[in-house]
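Model it.
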Amino acid sequence: MESAWRAKVRPQGMQPVDLGHCADNRPMNWTPTRAAALPPLLWLLVGCSPALNWRSVPLPEAGITITLPCKPDQASRTVELAGVPVELSMAGCDADGATFAVSHAALADPAQAGAALRHWRAAVVANLGTGAAATAADAPYAPKGALPLPQSVRTVVQGQRADGSPVFAQGVWFARAAGPQMRLYHAVVYTGKPRPELADQFFAGMVLQ
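Modeled.
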C-alpha cells in the first residue's frame, strides 16, 4: 500500500518541498527550514525500508563511508553557513521508528570551521522547541581523521515535534581538512524514546576516507 509521511519536525513558516520518490516508487516529502537555520539538517526523511538492514553507503564526494539501516534518499540544497552560501548535501532514511541522516558541506574559509559547527548545532537544537536547549548535553566527539576542534561534539537532546509529541535526538558534528577547504559533517538520529545503542551503532559506522 502506498503512503507518504510528512516530516514530524517542521520549522515554522516553510512548506514541504517534494524532491522525488523512493526506490519503491512511494512518494516522499522533504521539509526544509529557513536557510539561515541550516534546513537540510532538520529534515526528517521519509525512508523506503521498514526494517533495520544495515548497509555500507559510500559518499565519495564527502570522503566518508557511512552505515544506514535502511535504503537512503539523498538531496542537496544551497544554505547559509558561517555567513556564506554553501552546498549542503544530505543522505538519510527512516526505519524502525527512527530517522537517520548525515549531512556535509565544504567551507572555503577553514578559520570559520568552529563557528560553523557551533551554528549548525544551535540550529538543530533550536528546531526541537524552546525548552530543548536546557536539556542538551555535550561530550567531545572526534572520529579518526577529524580535527580536534572544541566544537566537535556529540549532543543528546530532548524536544518536541510540531505536533507536541516527544522527540529525542543524538547528533554529532565534526570537521576535517580537505585541501584548501574544510569539510563539515553532521550526523543525527531522531527517535520517539531514548535509544542510545542505536545512535552508537550509527555513529560507529562512519569512516572518513
